[in-house]
Specification:
By secondary structure, the protein is of the alpha+beta class. It is built from 3 helices and 8 strands; from the N terminus they run βαβββαβββαβ. The strands form 2 sheets. The protein has a 6-stranded antiparallel sheet with strand order 4-3-2-7-6-5. The chain has a two-stranded antiparallel sheet with strand order 1-8. The N and C termini lie close together (6 Å). 39% of the residues are buried.
Length: 154
Amino acid sequence: MATLHDSDNTLLALVRTTFDAHSAVLFLPDQSGNYTVALSSTDGEPNVQEVTIAPGKGLVGWILRHKQPVIVNNLDMRHTFLGYYDEEDEGAVSAFMGCHIPEGGALCVDSVRPRAYSEEDQLLLHRFARHIARQVHSAGLASDGGPAPLFRAA
């Protein structure tokens, strides 16, 4: 899985712990117009997969297409999917929250324990997303060529 710098991974771990989430996942645009997992922080199993998500596919794709935040408490995986876990592991997720990143992409958190994300949580997640967008932009990762050239393998 591609990663940014150690400080970015620490920031994503901070996002995860702030929301008492199982995972925090950062999606950034790639050269094909889709979005890949650029960075993730996970608290054990299940683990985030290396995936590419097209706008409109699943909850993350909905955020990417509509550039709108989403909160889903009491997640029912029979009617939707996240797309960044193995298909068998998605059923463990009980709550999801995500928002669009201003320079392109999405920042998402999820929980495997019962959790009720609030509008206040959503506002805080959006602040984290804006901060991450500034980091991505200043690192030159949000260029037309996409993030891949500046990433290093984990």
